[in-house]
Specification:
Rossmann fold, Helicase, Ruva Protein, domain 3, two-stranded parallel ribbon, 15 helices
């Protein structure tokens, strides 16, 4: 059996309440498997739909057409947050700690055995919102796996009393850092409405900050009024903002409108349908010679969204840029 790829461990545990942070880490593991063999060597499953024994069976299978199999298990807290069974004593009659393994008996034992002796050519990534560190399986994982903790604002323990102030300070630092990365500054007084709206939910805060950056694009400083407009829902989404910007050949505005549409809950296929309508109905009036190529780009995007497993948001962004480029080229002729 070939040696494991340098620098890649066989076991990873990703835990915390920051879903975006966890997803960013998971994407790095997806990239370990070349696209042409992902159908054979990349598995992404939910612990809600499978059991540990099934995962172990796949993990023990040698990878096909490559040197590494990657298995990503989401919602693994189902296996790792079980409470203690039976009496309150710390020790059971057989000398164990009395903790429940989380999964069903036998099934959990299979996972524990695997954790103690994992396959070097498989990378098993377990993603959980929380873990019970008293269970046998979690104790084994903490000894053997590489641990990533993504606790967002709250920390591992529930925020209460004075800890809330610490969470709010972390939220303020997060907001300031994200604004700096976007090339903006924010009025210190504008941070409080953001953190008040999000509380200790990092997901809400991330979404608010992303919408704020889009809303204020082109402005060097974010004000209290800007924040209040975003968190109050006062920012209105222009239903035809994307296609109007494409018609002008304005890729930057088109991408901004696309992001705002997604953040407001737009469905990718509805957005694709709107772009297809633009190519069929409006582009022929302004640049009829570009219609065949634009129609092919829409078709290829639709095909990729249905068959390639690509991220719809990324595919639509590429299509928007391509359509803006076609419009710009047509204008220049």
């Amino acid at each position: 059996m070939p040696a494991a790829k340098a620098g890649t461990a066989p076991l990873y545990l990703i835990v915390g309440d920051d879903e975006r942070g966890k997803d960013e880490i998971v994407q790095q593991f997806t990239a370990l498997v070349p696209e042409d063999v992902r159908a054979f060597n990349l598995e992404r499953v939910s612990a809600l739909d499978t059991d540990p024994a099934s995962i172990v069976s796949v993990a023990r299978t040698y990878p096909l057409l490559g040197d590494r199999r990657v298995i990503i298990v989401t919602r693994a807290e189902r296996w790792f947050t079980a409470k203690r069974k039976g009496r309150a004593a710390d020790e059971s009659e057989d000398g164990s700690d009395g903790a429940d393994d989380g999964p069903a008996a036998g099934s959990g034992d299979a996972l524990t055995s695997y954790v103690e002796s994992p396959e070097p050519n498989t990378t098993l990534v377990l993603v959980a919102a929380d873990i019970n560190r008293t269970t046998r399986i979690v104790k084994a994982l903490l000894k053997q796996a590489v641990l990533f903790e993504c606790w967002g604002l709250k920390g591992e323990k529930e925020v209460r009393g004075p800890a809330i102030a610490d969470a709010m300070q972390r939220a303020g630092r997060f907001v300031a850092a994200e604004m700096k990365k976007a090339g903006m500054t924010i009025d210190p007084r504008a941070i409080e409405p953001l953190t008040d709206h999000a509380g200790t939910d990092i997901g809400v805060l991330r979404g608010d900050v992303e919408r704020l950056i889009l809303y204020c694009q082109g402005k060097p400083n974010v004000t209290v009024d800007d924040v209040r407009a975003v968190v109050s829902g006062a920012t209105m989404i222009n239903a035809w903002g994307v296609t109007n910007a494409i018609e002008r050949g304005d890729a930057r505005t088109a991408l901004r409108e696309l992001e705002l549409s997604f953040d407001s809950g737009a469905v990718p296929y509805m957005m694709l349908g709107q772009l297809a309508w633009f190519v069929r109905s409006k582009l022929p009036l302004s640049a009829p010679g570009r219609v065949p190529a634009a129609a092919d780009a829409v078709f290829q995007t639709d095909l990729a969204m249905k068959t390639s497993g690509g991220e719809p948001r990324v595919l639509l962004e590429r299509l928007v840029v391509e359509l803006c480029g076609r419009k710009s080229s047509a204008r220049g002729r």
